Amino acid sequence: QVQLVESGGGLVQAGGSLRLSCAASGGTFSGYVLGWFRQAPGKEREFVAVIGWNIPITYYGDSVKGRFTISRDNAKNTVYLQMNSLKPEDTAVYYCAADDPRSTPGPTLRTPTRYDYWGQGTQVTVSS
């Protein structure tokens, strides 16, 4: 069973940086796509970024493009989200998710329902 564990959240001032980590275990991830989503109180879960485990896929949500960078370390089975120039509107619970290539293809990679596995989330709070 695939497990995803996020870490690295916290409280930061506007303009600051944080790096989130997502440690994946319980499988081999060839062909997987790993994504980051976020959810603020009272709002829908929002796509942040996605990266292919060993396929050339990397793209970002419009609200974070140019400020956030997604990367992976296959040897450590870990995906990272480097967040720079943080804004108060970035405040949310950040979730890591994995799309299993063996599952029935669903909606686009920007859609939460596409993903088969989720972490428990890590809180990011940006103060003004």
In brief, what are we looking at here?
With 128 residues, the protein is an all-beta fold. It has strands at residues 3-7, 10-13, 18-25, 33-39, 46-52, 58-60, 68-73, 78-83, 92-99, 117-118, 122-127. The strands form 2 sheets. Strands 2, 4, 5, 6, 9, 10 and 11 form a 7-stranded mixed sheet that branches. The chain has a 4-stranded antiparallel sheet with strand order 1-3-8-7, with no helix packed on it.
Highlighted features:
7-stranded mixed β-sheet, 11 strands, 128 residues, mainly beta
SSE arrangement:
Elements: E1 3-7, E2 10-13, E3 18-25, E4 33-39, E5 46-52, E6 58-60, E7 68-73, E8 78-83, E9 92-99, E10 117-118, E11 122-127
Parallel strand pairs: 2-11
Antiparallel strand pairs: 1-3, 3-8, 4-5, 4-9, 5-6, 7-8, 9-10, 9-11
Report on the structure:
The chain has 128 residues and is mainly beta. It contains no helices and eleven strands. The protein has strands at 3-7, 10-13, 18-25, 33-39, 46-52, 58-60, 68-73, 78-83, 92-99, 117-118, 122-127. Strands 2, 4, 5, 6, 9, 10 and 11 form a seven-stranded mixed sheet that branches. It has a four-stranded antiparallel sheet with strand order 1-3-8-7, with no helix packed on it. Strand 7 (68-73) and strand 8 form a beta hairpin. It starts with a strand and ends with a strand.
